Amino acid sequence: MTVKPGAIIACSLDYPLEDPVEIAVLPNENSAFIYNWESSEEAVGVVMEDGWTRFNSDDVLNNSIWLPIDTLYYEPWLSQANHIFRHLRITSSFGDYVFVTAAHFELNILASTEKPPTGFLFLCPPEDFETGSSSFRWPVCAAYWSLDPSGAGRLTLEEATRLGFPALDCTTEIYGYYWDTNVYEGLRKFHRAKGFDPDTQDVARHLRHPLYQLSSESTSQFAHVNEGDLEAAEEGYWDTENEDESDDLKTETWAGEHVSE
Questions:
Q1: Which candidate, 85, 252, 254, 83, places its Cα nearest to that of 169?
Q2: Fewer CB within 10 A of the end CB, N or C, for the chain?
Q3: Which residues contact 208 (CB under 8 A, 6 or more apart)?
Q4: Helix, coil or strand: residue 1
Q5: b vs e for 112-122, b when ≥16 Cβ sit within 10 Å of the residue's Cβ?
Q6: Helix, strand, coil tally for the chain in percent (to 5)
Q7: What band does 222 get if pLDDT is binned at 50, 70 and 90?
Q8: Where is this region: Disordered (predicted)?
């Protein structure tokens, strides 16, 4: 899947990556920070002239290397969340709407059953993960083994395996914040007390924040929504009688942080 730090996704906190739906995004807004490859065992990589990073094979065997991408710029979302919720007629289960803060693209270099020759692991430039503004996913070729320190002569998977180099296991960890009903209700009251209509993006404009737009995925997911329905739903907007508040969730592929203010 493509990861967009700063996007808002709808997902069940019990099964966060089973069927996530992006509901809102900051168009053409690059608010993500992409870093260099990091190693859990402090192996030091050398950045080559072509942007690829080289690690000595002896330093990375039975090790993990990851590429972190993150954003902590969640204020724009909180300034206009009620506007997006209103337009999608979302009135409950607010903890299921997650602000994506970060992604770690990780390579796990598994233990080898035999001693491979001295070689090198080459990892692609971080920008190869970019598919658009604040949009990232695994590239076609993220890494390869080579016997040549220049990176020439890439070993195919079959060649690397025959020589004893271990397999590379790719995983992705996604991190996010979510807030419960009390926070969004408090923001709604606070914005109104300051003279703003919480169902608009006036607060975001006043603070000069970038404006969220509904995602194409949310357009189809909430296709039943229209302005007449929105007006009819307003009176019971904050019906929390059946609100389901979930605990913090941390799994191998997801870390959600419940933020209360």
A1: 252
A2: C
A3: none
A4: coil
A5: beeebeebbbb
A6: 25, 30, 45
A7: very low
A8: 231-261
